[in-house]
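Sequence decides. Consider this:

===
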Amino acid sequence: MMSANDRQIGGDHYQGDIQPWEAMEAWMPREQFIGFLRGNAIKYLARLGSKDAGKQEALKAGHYCEKLAEILEN
């Protein structure tokens, strides 16, 4: 099964050796990282359609939720 780390929503500007959320996960305690993921999902839903296309914002929020689910599963 593909991990949330294996793709990016909305461009390829973070494609490289490490995804930004991988760095955050390494630097933060687990509970803080969970809050980071939740906050980013909320951010994308809150600005739905005001920055990027609504569908893209919803997909970005879903991507953060997917990563959150992976973390909570482990």
Q: What stands out?
A: Residues 19-73 form one domain. The chain has one domain: 19-73. The mean pLDDT is 85. Residues 34 and 71 are 8 Å apart (CA to CA).
